[in-house]
Specification:
alpha/beta, eight-stranded parallel β-sheet, 8 helices, 13 strands
């Protein structure tokens, strides 16, 4: 889907079913997509992370800290959507182990987990211990901020040396469509942790008309290897700090 859609349409654009464990990896837009899915998915939804999140980024939800299964069931019965973290540090919410998300998948209709960190950079390639993807993931979503499209790798990517190594170029080079496609489709890049039965989706965030030729070439390179979804720029009314409907 290379024609940009609004963030309010992201659930339909991703083609999600009635029972999904969605893991969000990569760069820009993960938290926004996480809270948008909490609002849009039908049934009960657990939102969480296996890494870290800003403790102020709650989407209007009252976080549960290391909830028992009974406490989570009660929260879902009352609120439909529950945000669950492992613990709090001074500035961060600390995530849960991936097997916990797998277990929660048996308690809720959907689990959506931020399974990667990028220090708010538009794109990245993972280190050896990244991402932290639950084994029961049904849809792996690789996020790319549009600021990385056609930009110098060292200027707009976290782990630029890793991005360049997977793309077969230098960190001083531009992230062209072939280089981006190489990282996105590599098991050492954005597909890392994608199980054999999981769908792989690429989400380009904040796509503008000026990106149309880049996106068209990327779509051709990706082909049937992944679903490609483009998100139009979203305003403050869709930011992660906006209270989400329950």
């Amino acid at each position: 889907m290379t024609e940009p859609v609004m963030i309010g349409e992201i659930s339909d654009a991703l083609g999600l079913g009635d029972h999904e464990l969605v893991s969000l990896v990569g760069g820009g837009g993960k938290t926004t997509v996480l809270f948008a899915l909490g609002t849009q998915l039908s049934g009960t939804v657990v939102l969480s992370t296996t890494t870290k999140m800003g403790r102020d980024r709650t989407g209007g939800h009252e976080p549960l800290l290391a909830p028992t299964d009974d406490a989570l069931r009660a929260a879902l019965a009352g609120r439909r959507v529950a945000l669950a973290w492992g613990a709090l540090s001074d500035r961060k919410a600390l995530g849960v182990e991936p097997h916990v998300c797998d277990r929660w998948f048996g308690l809720a209709d959907h689990v959506v987990v931020e399974a990667d960190g990028s220090r708010r950079m538009p794109f990245k390639a993972p280190l050896d211990y990244e991402p932290v993807v639950p084994s029961k993931t049904t849809t792996l979503v690789a996020c790319v901020g549009a600021a990385a499209l056609g930009a110098v790798i060292s200027e707009q990517c976290q782990r630029p040396e890793r991005v360049a190594a997977v793309a077969g170029c230098s960190p001083a080079d531009v992230l062209t469509p072939p280089r981006l496609a190489a990282v996105l489709l590599s098991d050492k890049g954005s597909r890392k942790g994608c199980g054999a039965s999981a769908r792989f989706v690429i989400v380009l965030n904040k796509v503008l008309p000026t990106h149309s030729s880049f996106v068209a070439e990327l779509a051709e390179l990706v082909g049937d290897a992944a679903t490609l979804v483009c998100l139009a720029p979203f305003g403050p009314e869709h930011s992660p700090e906006t209270p989400a409907a329950s």
